[in-house]
């Protein structure tokens, strides 16, 4: 069962919404997708993304190569997150449905940053609830940190003596295109319709 904790925790997590923000700023767009990108990536789009090995919600070992042939929208969070993660993940799922209605297939992916509680079973329940095509990924602490580092994702587990701890984390989503890899970040203030428009622009111009 997906557990939602006190809404007081939202303020704490919301304070970290920038997370990766210091690396993402308005500036000159890369020429290839200038008409699509609303942000410029510090170090260029090639500075984000890379190899990883994780386990999906069915128990299958996957790597970045498993997502190379399909437009993919990746979000890092955890199933025990009180509000931000469910809202952002649901937003991504809605955007994927809007795109599907217009003939574009995008795979939604949820990468857990909670190696202690997000078992295969917990992830399976979460992604089934969010979207039938969503893929949940988890792994050992080292595997998760390697994937987070590749995407320049910040997360930190709060110290506590019980199992009801929160995890501070950045809240961007990451869009990958076949033949291009990572191309842009999606901010959490963007609506499902806005996300769908941005992703469709990339797909049409790839």
Automatic annotation (TrEMBL):
InterPro entries assigned: SCO1/SenC, Thioredoxin-like_sf
This protein's name: SCO family protein
CDD domains, alphabetized: SCO (cd02968)
GO terms assigned for molecular function: metal ion binding
SUPFAM superfamilies from the UniProt entry: Thioredoxin-like (SSF52833)
Cystine connections: 81-85
Family from the record: Belongs to the SCO1/2 family.
Organism: Roseinatronobacter bogoriensis subsp. barguzinensis
Binding-site list for Cu cation: 81, 85, 169
Keyword Disulfide bond listed: yes
Sections of the chain in a coiled coil: none
Keywords assigned by UniProt, alphabetized: Copper, Disulfide bond, Metal-binding
PANTHER family named in the record: ELECTRON TRANSPORT PROTIN SCO1/SENC FAMILY MEMBER, LINALOOL DEHYDRATASE_ISOMERASE DOMAIN-CONTAINING PROTEIN
Keyword set includes Chloroplast: no
């Amino acid at each position: 069962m997906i557990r939602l904790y006190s809404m007081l925790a939202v303020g704490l997590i919301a304070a970290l919404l920038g997370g990766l923000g210091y690396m993402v700023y308005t500036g000159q767009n890369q020429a290839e997708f200038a008409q699509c990108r609303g942000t410029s990536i510090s170090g260029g789009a090639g500075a984000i993304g890379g190899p990883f090995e994780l386990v999906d919600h069915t128990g299958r070992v996957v790597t970045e190569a498993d997502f190379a042939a399909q437009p993919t929208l990746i979000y890092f969070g955890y199933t025990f997150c009180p509000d931000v993660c469910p809202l952002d993940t649901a937003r991504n799922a809605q955007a994927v449905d809007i795109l599907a209605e217009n003939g574009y297939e995008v795979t939604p992916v949820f990468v857990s940053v909670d190696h202690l509680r997000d078992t295969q079973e917990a992830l399976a329940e979460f992604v089934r609830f969010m979207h039938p095509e969503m893929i949940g990924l988890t792994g050992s602490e080292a595997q998760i940190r390697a994937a987070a580092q590749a995407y320049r994702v910040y997360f930190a587990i709060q110290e506590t003596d019980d199992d009801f701890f929160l995890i501070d984390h950045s809240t961007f989503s990451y869009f990958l295109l076949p033949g291009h890899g990572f191309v842009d970040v999606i901010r959490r203030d963007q609506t499902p319709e806005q996300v769908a428009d941005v992703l469709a622009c990339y797909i049409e111009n790839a």
